[in-house]
Design goal:
The complex is a heterodimer. By secondary structure, chain A is α+β, with helices and mostly antiparallel strands. Chain A has helices at about 1-30, 60-75, 85-90, 95-110, 120-125, 140-145, 175-190, 285-295, 300-305, and strands at about 35-45, 45-55, 90-95, 155, 160, 195-200, 200-205, 215-220, 230-235, 240-245, 250, 255-260, 275-280, 310-315, 320-325, 330. Chain A has an 8-stranded antiparallel sheet with strand order 1-2-6-7-10-13-14-15. In chain B, the strands form 2 sheets. In chain B, strands 2-1-7-6 form a 4-stranded antiparallel sheet. In chain B, strands 3-4-5 form a 3-stranded antiparallel sheet. The chains are: A alpha+beta, B mainly beta. The interface of A and B includes residues 201, 228 and 244 of A.
């Protein structure tokens, strides 16, 4: 009898220990993860989604959205009161953001032999991708618009930017990446532990998603399949931008036209690529580089990426996937 | 998979796709959205650009469709906590 009591007591103690260990493990797992605030909305004419991580779910999404809205008021040519719209009307504006974008993009335009050019505004307006007048422009109109395209005629001096007469600036190729830079600056002023933000598919990875400091996992959309991803990039912090021929396009007379225009010809890029994803430590640059690399093709992109210490994942129209630089990329097996 | 229907930045409905035995239709602000067991798409929209309709079907967690003029977004997320990735670049 006494012996049975002892066995029961021992079992009870063992069970109690097991339960304590299990609770401990659960508690530890919970404390290893941050709480997240998730938000999805629309700004800059695109989808903005974010996950913000901290010990308790932070309430910062409204500030992030306000930051993007404020930037749009500065850099969108569609906003009549913006400095860019003013420059497009009068050939000059005074704004530090616009000036800094112009200065940062000039060397990329140089390296891309003019295929990437912020003064492509009049040409983009003619194509009007996603707009009510979208369609292949008349050749004469396109020729006229192309005459206004020349980034070398743009000057940025302090805050003041001047363009040659008739030039229209279009910062669409870098706006979403620039928004990611602004969000990074905003988050740096807070104590937030981590954030992943997508502004229309341009990504900011900031801080950590959990206490273990595991890297962020950025999946890349497959340019030809709806049911699979191209693969996943793992990175500690930084910016990721993708340019592809699948995002904005229309078909006319049986031909497909996509929105990444070569500033030298005024037509969609003639490239062997269907998608390029750039990883970089600056949002504006990652956006500009992904567009430039898409226009240049795989081989000519390499010196450009090297110069900016950026890395990339390429996919050709034949379905060949390759990487450049030290990007930690795993292709999807399916 | 959960599909979140968001209007003006506010989640108005969450649809558990895997629990659907047949597609459900929601009409919000001129957008007709079809939620099926493994995908979501915009069947119609009264916006001029039709980008939401042209997006086609989304099937993977982290993917979204937006009708920007109507400020309507649908986004997909995994049901459990163990998402295989944090965000999708496109």
């Amino acid at each position: 009898m006494e012996r049975r009591k002892k066995i029961v007591s021992a079992l009870v103690i063992l069970l109690a220990i097991a339960a304590a260990v299990a609770i401990g493990v659960l508690a530890q797992r919970r404390s290893a993860d941050y709480e997240a605030e998730s938000y999805n909305g629309i700004a800059m004419g695109t989808i903005v989604s974010m996950k913000l991580y901290d010990e308790t779910a932070p309430a910062l999404s409204k500030q992030v959205m306000a930051q993007i809205d404020a930037l749009e008021q500065t850099i969108s040519w569609r906003v009549e009161s913006s400095p860019v719209a003013a420059l497009n009307r009068s050939g000059a504006c005074s704004n530090e953001t616009v000036s800094s974008v112009v200065a940062q993009c000039a060397p990329i335009s140089d390296a891309a032999n003019g295929a990437f050019d912020l003064t492509i505004g009049k040409v983009s307006e003619l194509w009007d991708f996603g707009g009510e007048k979208q369609g292949v422009p008349e050749p004469d109109a396109l020729r006229d618009a192309l005459r206004s395209v020349d980034y070398k005629a743009l000057t940025a001096d302090g805050a003041s930017v001047t363009a040659k007469s008739g030039q229209h600036l279009d910062l669409g190729a870098v706006g979403k990446g620039l928004a990611c830079d602004r969000i990074r600056a905003l988050l740096s002023l807070t104590d937030i532990k981590g954030a992943v933000v997508s502004v229309g598919g341009s990504i900011l990875c900031f801080g950590s998603r959990n206490k273990a400091g595991e890297p962020w996992r950025v999946a890349i959309r497959h340019p030809r399949r709806e049911d699979a991803l191209l693969g996943t990039i793992r990175l500690k912090e930084g910016f990721v931008s993708t340019s592809g021929d699948y995002e904005k396009f229309f078909e006319q007379d049986g031909k497909r036209y996509f929105h990444i225009l070569d500033a030298r010809t005024g037509y969609p890029a003639r490239t062997e690529l269907c998608s390029v994803t750039v990883v970089c430590d600056n949002g504006l640059l990652s956006d500009a580089l992904s567009t430039a690399c898409f226009l240049l093709g795989r081989e000519e992109s390499e010196p450009l990426l090297e110069r900016y210490n950026a890395s990339a994942v390429f996919m050709t129209k034949e379905g060949e996937i390759s990487t450049f630089g030290n990007v930690d990329f795993t292709a999807n097996e399916s | 998979m959960i599909a979140e229907l968001i209007v003006d930045g506010e989640t108005v409905e969450e649809v558990a796709l895997s629990a659907l035995s047949e597609p459900v239709v929601r009409e919000v602000r001129g957008c007709k959205i079809i939620f099926a067991r493994s995908s979501v798409h915009f069947a119609q929209a009264d916006c001029p650009d039709q980008l939401c309709v042209k997006t086609g079907e989304i099937r993977l967690p982290g993917e979204s469709i937006a009708c920007v003029p109507n400020r309507v977004v649908v986004t997909l997320r995994q049901t459990g906590a163990n998402d295989p990735y944090d965000v999708v670049a496109y």
